[in-house]
Amino acid sequence: MSFGEASKKMKEHYGIEVPACAIEKITLQHAAKMSEWVPEETQKQAQMLIAEMDGGMVPIVEVDQKIKDEEKDLRKTRKVLWKEAKLCFARDHKKIDRIYGAVIGSPDEAGQKLYKCAERVGFTENTYVHGLGDGAPWIVDQMESQFGAQSHFLIDFFHMCEYLAEAAPWCDALNPKEWLNLRKNLMKEGCHKKVLEELQARRSQLETLPESNGLDKCISYFEKRISYMNYEEAREKELSIGSGEIESSHRHVVQKRLKIAGAWWSENSANLMLQLRTARANNDWEAYWKERRKAA
After folding, report:
1. Of 31, 178, 208, 212, which is the most buried if we count CB atoms within 10 A?
2. What is the overall mean pLDDT for the chain?
3. Closest Cα partner for 85 from 115, 116, 118, 110?
4. Who contacts 168 (Cβ-Cβ below 8 Å, separation ≥6)?
5. Could you tell me if 129 and 151 are in contact, meaning their C-beta atoms sit under 8 angstroms apart?
6. Phi and psi (nearest 5°) for 144?
7. HSE-up of 50 (CA within 13 Å, CB side)?
8. Tell me, what's the pLDDT at 75?
C-alpha cells in the first residue's frame, strides 16, 4: 500500500501516529540495506532452468537541480516521464518457485540480475537454460551473453502470433482466421522457415502495399528472429513456448506497488522499492530480518 495508507493503518491498528514521510524514509533505508544483503547460498544443482525477462513502464519524476536552485515554485522543476522496469526470474524447470530480480537500468544490469537468480536456483556449468521473452533485442542479447552456449532462447509464441495475425489479411483476404490457425499449427510443428518463405513469396506477388502494413511487419520480425522460433523442439522437451509467467509477474511484483494511483517515484526510490518487492517474492523477508536481529 502507499506510505500514506500505511500511516493510517498504524494509527488504526496500533494507535501510533507515524507520518507518511517517516514511514517512507525507514522503508527505503531497509530497502537499501536489503539491496546489499546477500542471502545464504544453498547447494543446488539444476539440470535445466527456465529463465524469462520482460520490461514494463513505471512512472518516474526527475528534478532539474539547476532550475530548482532558482525557482520558487518546485512544480516547475519536475519532469514526469516513464522508464522501463526490467524484471527477470529463473526457476528449476520441474518446480514452480521462482527467484526474481528487477532493476530500472541498463540491459547489462538486468542481465546480471538474471544470472544471480539462476545461480540461486542451481545454475552450474552443466545446466541448460531455456530462455523465453517477447523478442526485444536486449532480452535476446542478455540471454546469450549471460549463459552462452548453455542456453537457447525462444520467442514467446503468442507474441509471434500477433505478427502473423497482422499478416493474415494480406495472405488470405477471404479466410484470414483459417489461414492464421493453419500457420500457427505449422509453427508448432517446426515449420517456421517454411512459413517465412511463404510470407516472402506472398510479398513478391503483391506489387504495391501501404507504407505500413502487417505483411511487411511480420516478415521483418521473422527474418530477424527466425532462429528463435523452434517451438517443436521445446514442445518435445515438454517446455513452455509462452512467456506468460513473466508477464503476470510484472503485475504482482512491480505494478501492484509502483503503479498504484497517484504514485510517482524518483528513479532511486523506485529501484529501492523493486528490491523490497523482489525480496518478498523470493521469500527472503524473514531471513533478512533474522540477520538484522543478529546484528542489533
Report:
1. 31
2. 91
3. 110
4. 176, 177, 179, 180, 183, 214
5. yes
6. -75, -40
7. 22
8. 64
Helix, strand or coil for residue 172?
coil
Distance of alpha carbon 24 from alpha carbon 283, whole angstroms: 22
Helix, strand, coil % (nearest 5) of the chain? 60, 15, 25
Radius of gyration of the chain (CA): 23
Report residue 125 as a C-alpha cell.
556449468
Domain boundaries, the chain: 43-154+242-282, 158-232
Q: In the numeric block, which cell numbers belong to residue 265?
A: 517515484
126-182 pLDDT per residue, tens: 999 999 999 899 999 999 999 999 999 999 999 999 999 999 999 999 999 999 999
pLDDT at 295: 78
pLDDT of residue 262: 81
Pick the closest to residue 238 from 93, 95, 91, 54 (CA basis).
93
Closest CA to 33 of 266, 257, 275, 254: 275
Give dist(CA 119, CA 92) in Å, integer: 11
Q: How does strand 128-133 pair with strand 151-155? A: parallel
Residue 67: predicted pLDDT: 56
Q: What are phi and psi of 124, to 5 degrees?
A: -135, -175
Task: Return the CATH number of the domain spanning residue range 43-154+242-282.
Answer: 3.30.420
30 vs 126: CA distance, rounded Å: 36
